[in-house]
């Protein structure tokens, strides 16, 4: 005789693996959807949060300086986010336009002489002025190239940015054409090391400065595409070995 309990047990043993596989596949799919949602929403959310924090910080610093008569928040039943940032941009533009005429240049020279004669402020002012003039100048070559340097020892390569060419005694005592290279730390690229290296020891990369900074901040997780131009001589050599090209 056939035992009914044995038949039920055998039927359950057949259906159990199928159920487990279905549940496992569903969990894996939900997990993939979850990480895909994080991948899509995290960059957008962080960007919006940082932009909102910047606008809120600028508004908090600029709006209290606006006279009550001209403050739009005193006439509206709600606050206008970004009004402080807009006023700051307009003010900086007007200051830049003012320095283009004779009166503005005279005011700039007067304030420059005053700050240069102040003992404590003089060093900080000159350093900040030189940094901003170097970085914001349209002809500046600061942070225009990404290079590889052997640092901190031979065989170990680090990502760096050419910030300029040293002058004076550094260039003279270096024994050749030197380049100023900033090697940032990971994941905080605002700190790092300043190296003066011979130009012949630098390996120039095809990636942009923005891509290099992304690579540093991500710790190498984000890798830019290869934009190197193939060597024409190698292409011709390969073509010649295969019977292509001219005679």
Features:
single chain; 247 residues; alpha+beta; SH3 type barrels; five-stranded antiparallel sheet; 7 helices; 5 strands; 53% helix; 12% strand; flat
Structure description:
The protein has 247 residues and is of the alpha+beta class. The protein folds into three domains: 25-100; 112-140, no CATH class; 145-217, Roll (SH3 type barrels). It is 53% helix and 12% strand. It has seven helices and five strands; from the N terminus they run ααααββαβββαα. A five-stranded antiparallel sheet has the order 4-3-2-1-5, covered by helices on one side. Helix 1 (4-62) crosses helix 2. The chain is flat and about 85 Å long. Pfam families: DUF502 (PF04367). InterPro entries: COV1-like. The chain crosses the membrane at residues 32-55, 75-103. It comes from Hypericibacter terrae.
Q: Could you provide a short overview of the structure?
A:
This protein is an alpha+beta fold and 247 residues long. Helices cover 53% and strands 12% of the residues.
Unreliable stretches: 231-239, 241-247
Order of helices and strands: HHHHEEHEEEHH
Shape: flat
Beta-strand content: 5-15%
Q: What Rg, in angstroms, do the CA atoms define? A: 31 Å
Biggest sheet features: 5 strands, antiparallel
Helix and strand composition category: alpha+beta
Indicate the percent of residues in helices.
Answer: 40-55%
Number of strands: 5
Keywords: Membrane, Transmembrane, Transmembrane helix
Protein name: Membrane protein
Organism: Hypericibacter terrae
Transmembrane segments: 32-55, 75-103
């Amino acid at each position: 005789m056939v035992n009914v309990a044995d038949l039920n047990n055998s039927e359950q043993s057949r259906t159990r693996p199928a159920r487990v596989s279905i549940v496992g596949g569903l969990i894996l799919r939900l997990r993939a959807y979850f990480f895909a949602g994080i991948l899509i929403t995290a960059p957008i959310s962080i960007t919006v949060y940082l932009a909102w924090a910047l606008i809120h910080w600028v508004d908090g610093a600029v709006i209290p300086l606006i006279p009550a008569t001209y403050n739009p928040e005193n006439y509206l039943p709600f606050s206008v986010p970004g009004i402080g940032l807009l006023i700051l941009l307009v003010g900086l533009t007007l200051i830049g336009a003012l320095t283009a005429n004779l009166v503005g240049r005279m005011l700039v020279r007067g304030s420059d002489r005053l700050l240069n004669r102040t003992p404590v402020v003089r060093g900080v002012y000159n350093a900040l002025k030189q940094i901003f003039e170097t970085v914001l100048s349209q002809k500046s070559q600061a942070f225009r190239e990404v290079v590889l340097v052997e640092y901190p020892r031979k065989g170990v390569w680090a990502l760096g940015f050419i910030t300029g060419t040293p002058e004076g005694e550094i260039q003279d005592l270096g024994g050749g054409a030197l380049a100023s290279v900033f090697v940032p730390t990971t994941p905080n690229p605002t700190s790092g090391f300043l190296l003066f290296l011979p130009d012949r020891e630098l390996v120039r990369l095809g990636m942009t400065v923005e891509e290099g900074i992304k690579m540093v901040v991500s710790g190498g997780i984000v890798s830019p595409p290869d934009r190197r131009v193939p060597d024409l001589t190698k292409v011709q050599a390969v073509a010649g070995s295969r019977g292509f090209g001219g005679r």
